[in-house]
Amino acid sequence: MLSEALMQNLFGFASGLIGAAVGGVFTLYAARQSIVASVVREQKQDEKEMQNMLEAMGVEMSTLWDFHMMRVGERVEQLRDGEALEFYYPLTQDYFTIYDTNASKIGLVKDPALRKAIVVCYNKCKKVVDGFKYNNELYRDYAQAASVPVDLPQQRKLVEAKRGMLSEYAKIIRSDHFELKAYVEELTRLLPR
């Protein structure tokens, strides 16, 4: 039979082994809980950042739209067929700061309809800005041609042609305006409040 000393050593060894195993299990459990808590905190932080970005986009879009309507939008909506936008609309900077600085995060928006609405609306906004810049060029050309006396038939035809280009382009601006208006309404409807 086994000696009493050997039995005590085996019992001590087994006790130590069981203690280490129990301690290890609790350590693993605590580590797992810490990791889970950290992941949950990160997810909440990411969700808060996304919420803040979407709210900022809403503020940016509504501010730009209000400014657009105040400056030129109502005028565009009242254009009749054949009328031209005979004025210079100053556009000198990039107006989409929130969108541009967060473009890489748009793919992380969970709602596919909202994600699409953001991209479509902002791209249409940029197209409308480009359209007004082009209208400014057409208006400048027309104003320059009209500033010269139109005594000659050639000059009169040139002025009429430039005015015709300006009035034809006004149709595109008006159409783009109403299309953008619908996109802005859709985006503001989908954005969190």
- What is the count of structural domains? 1
Q: Helix proportion of residues, in percent?
A: over 70%
Q: How many β strands by DSSP?
A: 0
- Give the DSSP E fraction (strand runs of 2 or more residues): under 5%
Rounded average pLDDT? 90
Order of helices and strands: HHHH
Major β-sheet annotation: none
Structural class: mainly alpha
Helix segment tally: 4
| Gross morphology | rod-shaped
Q: What's the Cα radius of gyration?
A: 34 Å
User: What is the first-to-last residue Cα distance?
Assistant: 80 Å
Using brief descriptors, characterize the structure shown:
193 residues; mainly alpha; 4 helices; 79% helix; rod-shaped
Descriptive report:
With 193 residues, the chain is mainly α. The chain has one domain. It is built from 4 helices and no strands. It has helices at residues 4-77, 97-101, 112-146, 153-190. It starts with a helix and ends with a helix.
